[in-house]
Amino acid sequence: MLIIILLFLAILLSRVTSLKTAVNILLFQSVLVALACAFVAAETGEMHTYIAAALTLIIKAGLIPYALFRIVRMLRREREANPIISPNHSVMVAGIMVVLAYSLIDKALPGIVSRDALAAAVAMMLIGLTLIMTRRQAVLQIVGLITMENGLYLVGLSVTKGLPLIIELGVFLDVLVAVVVLVILTYRLKRSFLSTDTSMLKKLKG
Amino acid sequence: MGHLIILALVLPLLAGVFTMIQSRQKPIRFINLLGSLLLSAVLLSLVQQVAKNGTIHVGQFYIDALSAILLLVVAVLTCTANLFSLSYMQKEITDGHISLTMLKRYYGLLNLFVFTMLCVPLVENMGILWVAVEATTLSSALLVAFYFDRAALEAAWKYVMVCTVGICLALLGTILLYYAQVNADLGGEGQALSWLAMQAVSEQLDPGMIKLAFVFILIGYGTKAGLAPMHTWLPDAHSQAPSPVSGLLSGALLSCALYGIIRMVIIVKGAVGPAFPEQFLIGFGLLSIFIAVPFILVQHDLKRLLAYSSIEHMGLITLGLGLGTPLALYGALLHIVNHAVTKSALFYLAGAIIQHYGTKHILRIRGLVSAMPVMGTMFVAAILAIAGLPPFSIFYSKLAIVWAAFQSSNYLLGALILLLMAAVFAGMIYYTLKLGFGKVPGKVHDNYQLGKPAMTAVSFSMLLMVAGGIYLPSWLDTLLIQAAAIIGGVQ
Predict the structure, then answer these.
(1) Nearest-CA distance A173 → chain B (Å)
(2) Rounded (to 5) percent helix, strand, coil in chain A
(3) Least CB-packed of B131, B158, B286, B452 within 10 Å?
(4) A200 assigned to some structural domain
(5) Tens digit of pLDDT for each residue in B279-323?
(6) How many domains in chain A?
(7) Which of A178, A188, A189 sits opposite B138 (nearest CB)?
(8) What distance in Å separates residue B404's CA from the closest CA in chain A?
(9) Residue A190 lies in a domain
């Protein structure tokens, strides 16, 4: 059930053009990832998985959306004007990604227990990646990056029940700092270019 | 030994914190100079310890000959970068390009960057290694964007986006590696993703999974190491960062990313044999050299020229690693050291030149040797060095790699590298002649004085370049041979 909602959200994410909606969906998605982590924790009964679930909730569903909402409020006029692939086609691409993910998993890891979860996770990674590649708005690219990271986290969760705690902590810290750095850059983009459309970044060549 | 390692990690953090609470220029300079000199001393003593007494393994930290070489690079480069920053940033302040707040931010971030870069060779665990590599991206991103002008923002945005996506793939590879370890029932208490533990039992790991993990890690860390075709962020970031930082990025950070690949290669070699990783390394290495050549031949920006040359050299090192014979590995490791020293000196000099001429455009820079006699001469010499002319140290490491290619009867490959290197050489000489000689543009006055610290830094690098070509200290030789043996595995 969780997996279906997660996949649905990822596909939905490939449709939105409003920044605020995108962050809202991302928030919901992160809560679900934390929930999935909590399920795994309940299943294994290991303390460190609970900690990881709590951290997911605090960082990915708390601090990161907070930082994004702050920047989005500043960018009231910004929206994805002409994405490289139109929203309708994006959904199709996202669908293809899901199929691709399933076939990849079946080929690389036949007979793995958590087949659906893993495939959904890989699909989320791929959808995140396509978001980064096809969106021009800085904030949507950040959203794509976090979607990819969430997918990655689910991969870890479904194949190895999560990484050792100390590494997990480091990963969380890195993700948080990455978002902070990107938000600072977005803010500066807005100030220097008066827009956060990254298609303007094409001066450096050769 | 544990306290020395802790000291090395704490020093840059302390220097950074002290910098942030100071409000005058002088103490900031003093703290950073002192901090970097102390740090280099500590690191060098660690390297000496490894050379004399063998590997150090304390808790999560692990230093063998291979990491010692990286530490050596970081030690030399932090020292020179800090020295050079003193004069460079002074001039930026007097010219009114930056304010005191920006200076504080610069030194704070620089120290953080050095700290993250030190973590990479010091940690033993593949998972923490990933965290450290990602941390280097993030700490250096704001340094790349330091001036916050349009070009710098563009460079920083591309840098963070491309490298973070790349590094996410590396994390996927790391997770798969962990999966392989867990599946082989080797993930005992405290052993998870431990490099030593995995290396010891590498032949029991599932070959298919390890291959998959390797490909992801190679692409991930390869992005960070500037291997083609994932190199697109590199010329932008290296050309927009302040020059001392460009030197660090090019000399030390690229090698740190390669270090991650090397550690993985050792495990893969144990699991599936050397042929599988080596074909990838040779492929990526050759492609990197190949892609860099046209951009070096037709270039308009001085720092981009150097950045593309970095791609070429990283390609050469990767190729050396891929050849896998002891001579090739020795050459590749020596090349890491030589390239770091030479390229950082070049970036520093380029920084001074750009400050003096007020442009990065190659066509507008003329008559270096008469406008700035000492610096100009050094710059021409350093360019000749990076192009691979004897008696500079780079010539010997390049020779070792090419020689190894012929020795392992890869004649076609060897000939191809020689051809590409000849093209790079031609490009470099062409630009050197243009930059170094000719009539000095009117508005540039010709009595240029670089601050003493910067002069010391650059002269020191030049000294190492020349001395390294004539004489290799026996401890470094021992370290290189040991490190080559670690990568090559015990045959």
Answers:
(1) 9
(2) 80, 0, 20
(3) B452
(4) no
(5) 999 999 999 999 999 999 988 899 999 999 999 999 999 999 999
(6) 1
(7) A178
(8) 33
(9) yes
Residues of chain A with Cβ-Cβ distance to B142 below 8 Å are 181, 184
Mean pLDDT of B3-17: 91
| Model confidence pLDDT, tens digit, residues B93-143 | 888 888 888 999 999 999 999 999 999 999 999 999 999 999 999 999 999
Q: How many CB atoms lie within 10 A of CB B48?
A: 14
Chain A positions in Cβ-Cβ contact with residue B166 (cut-off 8 Å): none
Q: Taking CA atoms, what residue in A is nearest to B172?
A: A152
Q: Rounded to whole angstroms, how far apart are CA atoms B279 and B291?
A: 18
Which chain B residues have a beta carbon less than 8 Å from that of A125?
A: 168, 172
DSSP string, B254-323: HHHHHHHHHHHHHHHHHHH-SHHHHHHHHHHHHHHHHHHHHHHHS--BHHHHHHHHHHHHHHHHHHHHHH
Residue of A nearest to B189 (CA): A164
What is the per-residue pLDDT across A112-152, written as a single tens digit (0 to 9) for each? 777 788 888 889 999 999 888 888 888 999 999 999 999 99
Range of the domain at A131: 2-195
What ipTM goes with this model? 0.92
Contacts of B219 in chain A (CB under 8 A): none
Please count the residue pairs, one from chain A and one from chain B, whose beta carbons lie less than 8 angstroms apart. 115
**Residues B430/B432/B433/B435 CA torsion (nearest 10 deg):** 120
Any domain includes A157: yes
Query: Which residue in the set A156, A182, A188 is minimally distant from B148, CB to CB?
Result: A188
What's the residue count for chain B?
Answer: 491
A197: nearest CA in chain B?
A: B154
Do the domain assignments include residue A41?
A: yes
Residue that the structure tokens 């390869």 belong to: B222
B190 band by pLDDT with thresholds 50, 70 and 90: low
The residues of A whose Cβ lies within 8 A of any Cβ of B are: 108, 125, 129, 132, 138, 141, 145, 148-149, 152, 155-156, 159-160, 163-164, 166-167, 170-171, 173-174, 177-178, 181-182, 184-185, 188-189, 192-193, 198, 201-204, 206
CB atoms within 10 A of CB B447: 7
Output the CA angle B78-B226-B46, nearest 5 degrees. 30
- Read off the tokens for A167: 């590494």
